[in-house]
Every structure is written in structure tokens, then in C-alpha cells.
Amino acid sequence: xxxxxxxxxxxxxxxxxxxxxxxxxxxxxxxxxxxxxxxxxxxxxxxxxxxxxxxxxxxxxxxxxxxxxxxxxxxxxxxxxxxxxxxxxxxxxxxxxxxxxxxxxxxxxxxxxxxxxxxxxxxxxxxxxxxxxxxxxxxxxxxxxxxxxxxxxxxxxxxxxxxxxxxxxxxxxxxxxxxxxxxxxxxxxxxxxxxxxxxxxxxxxxxxxxxxxxxxxxxxxxxxxxxxxxxxxxxxxxxxxxxxxxxxxxxxxxxxxxxxxxxxxxxxxxxxxx
Length: 274
Known about the structure:
- This protein is mostly helical.
- 62% of the residues lie in helices and 3% in strands.
- The strands form two sheets. The chain has a two-stranded parallel ribbon with strand order 1-4.
- A hairpin with a 2-residue loop joins β2 (67-68) and β3 (71-72).
- The radius of gyration is 26 Å and the shape is extended.
């Protein structure tokens, strides 16, 4: 009678899952990660107008000695070029851009593991304890808290949208405006960006939660790319933040080059057959 021996999960050969082998939970996690990544990259562009507007505002306000036709040049620009040069309006554009930038990159920072962490305890834990800490933290704190904040941000936006509204207003008209006579209108739009950013952050939390759940409860010999923790054999050698982004960009370029080479080879073979 033959005796069947089983191999302990720890003794099994590590297996890096290919894209085709990923279970549904990991495919969903990767889809959410890519979506959050795209939103974050889009949101990062708000840094450019924020910097330019801030520099313009400071330049205009600190050079009042420049006069055109007897008026300080800020007044001349506002009255003869565009009301956008009013300092109050510029300052509101600054914090609107900052709000959009901050809100849209919240989830991006999490999936790239670039948020500030207090690692006095975490860095000394083994892989499974780190994974459990991440899993419990997301389940108990991140997901419920983000849902609560989304609810209040939604109410905050709806209240702003409903303010000063009457029967003759189209849905995009009226609503809360700046307290300043020369400020921005449609303040509910920037408040809606908070809701969008928090929803994206929630999706980022779900993406990481799915990964950590598979790492904890799935086969222990499976290996796949993790976002916020590192496998035991990779301890001390993982890439984070900007390095991870650069590594992924290089991988995308290599994949693109390989696809182009395959297409060129296929085209050459087709010509040879003709």
C-alpha cells in the first residue's frame, strides 16, 4: 500500500502568477489599481495651474509700483484685459486647484505606497503579521471611515448645489457662489471633486484589501505583485513610490517593444508566404 506524502505550503516551490493565471479577485484588484493610477496621474496635472496661478498672483501683488496709464498694473489688467487678474479670484483658483490635486491623488498615493507611515512597530513584523495589520486596518478603519466621509461630502455638495436655486435655474446654474463679489461661482463643482476623490480612495482601499486577502488566505506558494507590503523573500529589496513608477514604465516599454517585434515578424512572414 503506497503512502501519499503531502508537501507543506511553505515547502512548495514559489510560483509567480502570470496574467492569465490570476484569480478573479486579483484581476479585479489590478483593474481598480490601474483605474486609480490613471485618475491620480490626471489629478497630478492640477499642480501645474496651481503653481502658475500662485506665481502670477504673487507677481501681480508684489509689483504694485508698476503703473500703466496712471493705475497699478493689477487694476489695469483687471479692467482692460480680464477680471481673472483680480487677486481674490486668483487666490480662489489656487485653492480650487489644490483641492482637486489633493482629492484626486489620495488613492494614487495609497496604491503606490507613498503615504507617510509610522513604521516603529510594523517594520519589525514578519510578512503575515504585516499582512494581517494591513487587512484589519483596511477592514475596520479605512473602508468604513471613507464611506462615512463620502456620505458627508455628498451632503456637503448637494447643499451647495441647492443653495440659491429657483425654478428658472437649469441643473448646472445657480448654486453656491463665492462670498466675494469678484470670486468664483459654481462652488458645488469643487465640492463634488471631493466626493470623486474619496470614491477613488475607497476603490484604492478595496484593491489593496483584495490583494492582502489573497496573500493571507490563498495558497502560500502563489506570488504576485503587491502594493503596500513585500513578500518575505523580497524583504529590503522592494521598490516603492517613484522607483516603482519608473520600474513599471520600463516594463511597459519593454512590453511595447516586444509587441512591435512580434508584429514586424508576423508581417515579414506574411510577405514571405506571398
